[in-house]
Amino acid sequence: MFLRMIDKDSVWGLDDGLQSLVTTLLQLNMIGYSFVLPDMIGGNAYRAQPDLELVIRWTQATVFMPSMQFSFLPWDFEDDEQLKGTEIIRSMVELHTKYAPNIIAAMEEKLINRTPTNPPVWWIAPFDETALGISDEFLLGEDILVAPVMEQGATSRDVYLPEGSWLDGNDPAVKYEGPIWLDYNAPLDVLPYFIKE
């Protein structure tokens, strides 16, 4: 059974906006609700209409969650933005589809071993003080770390990788040895994610 997150507003902040998506996901997973239906991509537009950047970053944030549900799509925006937005959002839905077997495996693991589908970073590094403070990254199972961009206008973000060898999901030829902080380049079409070796 899926548990749907409470409505999120079409804003960037922690006040029920995009930035609250990951914290809500982590809270629900830690109290035993791992089959999470994140709120609609782009939010509910009760307070404001989202812009295309917000919809794209929201789409990226949900790629490695159990499901994706849209309230806004690229054709809801100006003609000159539609093509770019359509291509980016399509690529993110394709990424979700590509990793669907991993999502299903993490959900099955929840049923068998009672482990969260999308745990916090500290789940795999419980004695790492830095990992204990990370609230804007999450895992899919124990092998994929996701660090969505949730700041308006940002084209990079700090990413913390705990101990271990991590392949860059956007360029598997690049490997990082954690623990390490990265200043990760993330233009609008890039979702930072990493695969543990």
Structural features:
197 residues; alpha+beta; Immunoglobulin-like; two-stranded parallel sheet; 5 helices; 7 strands; 21% strand; globular; Alpha-glycosidase_related; glycosidase; hydrolase activity, hydrolyzing O-glycosyl compounds
Task: Summarize the structure in words.
The chain has 197 residues and is an alpha+beta fold. It has a single domain, classed as Sandwich (Immunoglobulin-like), CATH 2.60.40. The strands form two sheets. Strands 3-4-7-5-6 form a five-stranded antiparallel sheet. It has a two-stranded parallel sheet with strand order 1-2. Strand 3 and strand 4 form a beta hairpin. It is globular and about 45 Å long. It starts with a strand and ends with a strand. The model has no long low-confidence stretch (mean pLDDT 93).
Low-confidence stretches: none
Judged by helices, strands and strand pairing, the structural class is alpha+beta
The CATH first-level class comes to Mainly Beta
Count up the helices: 5
CATH-defined topology: Immunoglobulin-like
* Beta-strand fraction estimate: 15-25%
Keywords: Glycosidase, Hydrolase
Family: Belongs to the glycosyl hydrolase 31 family.
GO molecular function, one term: hydrolase activity, hydrolyzing O-glycosyl compounds
Question: Could you outline the blueprint of secondary structure elements for this entry?
Answer:
Elements lengths: L2 E2 L14 H12 L5 E2 L14 H11 L16 H20 L1 H14 L15 H4 L5 E3 L3 E3 L9 E13 L2 E15 L7 E4 L1
Parallel strand pairs: 1-2
Antiparallel strand pairs: 3-4, 4-7, 5-6, 5-7
